[in-house]
Amino acid sequence: MKSINTIRFSGRDVLPLIEGGKGVSVSTGISAGHWAAAGGIGTISAVNADSYDQEGNLIAQVYHGRTRRDKQEELIRYAIDGGIAQARIAHEIAGGRGRIHANFMWEMGAAEQVITGILEGAPGLIQGLTCGAGMPYRLSEIAARFGVHYYPIVSSARAFNALWRRSYSRTAELLGGVVYEDPWRAGGHNGLSNTEDPLKPEQPYHRVVELRKVMNRYGLDHVPIIMAGGVWHLEEWSDWLDNPDIGLIAFQFGTRPLLTQESPIPLAWKKRLMTLKKGDVFLNRFSPTGFYSSAVNNSFLQELRERSERQVAYRRSEEDEFNVSHHVGVRRRQVFLRGEDQQRVLQWEQAGFSEALRTPDETLIFVTPEQARQILKDQASCMGCLSQCRFSNWSQKGPTYTTGQPADPRSFCIQKTLQEISHVGEVDEAEGERIVDHNLIFGGTSAWRFREDPFYANGYVPTVKELVDRIMIGK
Questions:
Q1: pLDDT tens for residues 104-154?
Q2: Number of separate domains in the chain
Q3: What pTM value is reported for the model?
Q4: What's the CATH number where 58 sits?
């Protein structure tokens, strides 16, 4: 394989290997610090990171506010304190080696306020900002204010072109790199557009070549592209190295760092990664962000699929083919269904799915009374972790602080499930497996390779340093 040379990132020559940022509390100061110490770029997640008291004990993120706006203010404080704590940990472990970047979602709640608060509270400890999950037009303005480099995450040349023309052209000197995140292969939230087929993945090579053409047109041939999504062995990408059509290229690893000794995810999660088969991670659109996302097909996602499958259109008054009266729920509310749908509804109700919840699309989904209570409780407990949430109908924009749409019970509280799975704590093996199976597990579509890669034979879990060394040999 061709040699892997250092590239200048955020003011220093480092290995072109980047740890992908993963919130909530997954890409921590420990994992980022060790990645940087190995010579690459470690990434802390600025999405609701953990903070600690003076004795080093984890501070539980408990919300006491009466309104969603009050709760979001508490969340912002937790997020800023946590980001500062993780930056300090990463800086200490890195010991001046590599680079430390912070990753955040543009569509997370109060994104600009959170990242600004972290940078103010941890001056000089973060050298780069990585941001996606939306169109972060003001990312460059924040970077310029603090004199750090910025790294937008895009999934197409078209997206970068829009960002450049509207904003980034005014702060070109701090553009440290452009992350191309493959919308079919990367873990977490993905940038599929409405014109792209989620079932027909395109090859990244041609899309990255198009991105490079756009960048070169703006005189950015010296700015690296960071390939993210589906990267495992570098020898599989050897034709990208020293390729004039690709230009300067680096590689981001989001899934592989999950299975290291320094990774904070619970043991049950790590064990689950070692059992995955091809196809066990797939794109879905259940996220309250409205974005597609890649996650492990477990009981959590299966239950969400089943919710949507138990769904019929309805009307509140008789209309055209909606001419069959039906009474739903404990309050026996009258709705009108199509004749062919009523038989399915009766079967669902007889099976115990007797509660009907309205969606924004003039449909009803049918769930058990217990599921209905939990869904409504989770919606009421919304703490504004997103700028807007389709599950709870929260929006951080006044004066109503709602999206203007009804809450969507086909989605879920993403803050609740990510906090639960990343803070399993001291439980027995069976309970750990249950928690992992019944919560959201983000992952890239190549996660099945843990099971087949001889590097992980017999359940071997490497250190971050061992993983980086392994990646550097290409296989």
A1: 999 999 999 999 999 999 999 999 999 988 889 999 999 999 999 999 999
A2: 2
A3: 0.94
A4: 3.20.20.70
